[in-house]
Amino acid sequence: MVVGTVKIMILGAYGMLGHNLQGVFPGAECFGKELDITEKEVVLKTITASKPNVVINAAAYTDVDGCEDNVDHALRVNGEALAYIATACCESGAKLVHFSTDYVFDGTKQEYRESDATNPINVYGRSKLLGEQNIMEHMEDYRIIRTSWLFGRHGKNFVDTMVGLAGRMEQVKVVNDQFGKPTYTADLAQKTADIIDMEPGIYHITNEGVCSWYEFASAIIPNAVPCNSEEFVRKARRPEYSVLVNTKTGPMRHWRDALRDYLKGFDGTT
Ligand SMILES: NC(=O)c1ccc[n+]([C@@H]2O[C@H](COP(=O)([O-])OP(=O)(O)OC[C@H]3O[C@@H](n4cnc5c(N)ncnc54)[C@H](OP(=O)(O)O)[C@@H]3O)[C@@H](O)[C@H]2O)c1
Description:
By secondary structure, the protein is of the alpha/beta class. It has helices spanning 16-24, 40-50, 64-69, 71-92, 123-138, 158-168, 185-196, 213-218, 255-263, and strands at residues 8-11, 29-31, 54-57, 95-101, 111-112, 142-147, 150-151, 172-175, 179-180, 183-184, 201-204, 211-212, 224-227, 243-244.
């Protein structure tokens, strides 16, 4: 895609990924929370009036444990809103790029391809799956990008949490029995530009390399110690092994290389 020749609208533009998307798509029409995606009529009007070529939706309710307490809100933001966002895109002739998650899978299988059966085990995963289903039901020209374990400069994330804890605690316990693929939002935002020009469908886009949260933490801080999920009970169940396999497009770099850039403060998109 030649950035600048198409009209792009970004929803959720001030979240962690949204900030990086703004860097990749300068000149995009950007909306933060002032365009509440649960406001159906406003969303329909905004998209159909603007007539963008591409709508990129990075807005979501991403508090995985919070979703367990706020089920209706999670379903509205992550699920129901996608039905009318898709309808508006369809009416305006816009492509929709939407982000989803590895948590649509239950994590009982080692690896998940784009076509594998979904089976979420928490409310967040259920709500994101509803979003995917609503998009597929209401339009054809969509790209759903499932990704995992995001870290980036513009949001609360695991890397910063570890750095903070390491300074305050002698040892930082981190679970060693959940596996996934850490992904740098700067890399994901760059890759999104390529996906826009690809075939409609579902994409699995992450940095390369699989690790446990403990292995990820050990690459960030010197005083991480392994523990298991039973020692670290959380409100929402997490999949054990939610590794997304990308069968459709070129791989991104290894998460360790991306992490090195992040820790050096390098963010190619802003
Ligand atoms: N973070 C991860 O590890 C991860 C993993 C897999 C997939 N994803 C997906 O990747 C995408 C981007 O994630 P992210 O980490 O960048 O999320 P984020 O930092 O939480 O950004 C989401 C943005 O959406 C906004 N938002 C929430 N409710 C809204 C509403 N009703 N209307 C409009 N905006 C609303 C949020 O505002 P407030 O912050 O003010 O609420 C925030 O600015 C999401 O679709 C997420 O599900 C994330």
